[in-house]
Amino acid sequence: MEPTRHIVRILTAITACLLVSCIDGREEIWLNANGSGRADVSYSLPAAAARFKGGEAGVRRIIGDFLKNTPAIATSSYEVSTDQDRLKIRVQATFDSALDLKEISNGASLAKLPSSASYLAGDMTVDVHGRTVDFSRTIAPGKALPGAIFLPATQFEGRNLTYIIHLPAAATDANATRVEDAGRTLVWDYPLAGALGNPLTLRFKAKIPVPTWAVASIAGTVLLLAYFAIRRMRRVKPPERG
Questions:
Q1: What stretch of H or E contains 139?
Q2: Is 223 in contact with 211 (CB distance < 8 Å)?
Q3: Which sign does the torsion angle of CA 169, 175, 181, 187 carry?
Q4: CA 93, 99, 101: angle at the middle one, nearest 5?
Q5: What is the pTM (predicted TM-score) of this model?
Q6: Residue 122: left (phi > 0), alpha (psi -120 to 50), or beta?
Q7: From first to last of its 242 residues, what are the pLDDT tens digits of the chain?
């Protein structure tokens, strides 16, 4: 009986891997000039995969705990629903600092999620040099979806992973598959079948624009200094001639 149990466990593990291999993902992020922003993340996967995580309610609990225990996220909302044979997950969140988001990949809350989520979240680095932001994120869909190697190519048709970032200013350098809005919107769009090989790296550089309030403040300061300089000049009496 013991060998039979091992076989059942192995088959169950393989089945679980197969079930989570057919996913669709779309992540969209809006960044503001002051570093804050918001995100809208949606994933769709076979509903049967949720059975291994307590069903729809179990997935909802896992996501709720993750959002609650992630300090970098200021506000959030999420939806988990089943549409025929697909489980649909959507998370919307706001953040005060994009720099804090890079800590999510190393945070304790992410470690509590299934390992596939960690690979899909990837490793993120954000460096600031003067007014230049250097962003890089490496994702490993192949490791997140190990069961994909057992599936025929037809299973991946129409499945995509899409990542979109809206910047407050045009990127000066990027490896996006598509650029829109005069360089302010970067799109990385990958068919799932092609994304399962080597890790994907999303990369861009952009200048941080000076916020409008800062421009107004600087202009106001200059005008104020000019005003006091003129008043002082008027108060100075011209030297008497001998």
A1: strand 132-139
A2: no
A3: negative
A4: 40
A5: 0.77
A6: left
A7: 555 554 444 444 444 444 455 788 999 999 998 889 999 999 998 888 777 778 899 989 989 998 988 888 999 999 999 988 889 999 999 999 887 776 676 666 666 777 778 888 888 888 888 888 899 999 988 887 766 666 666 667 788 999 999 999 999 999 999 999 999 999 999 998 888 888 999 999 998 764 443 334 444 545 555 555 555 555 555 555 55
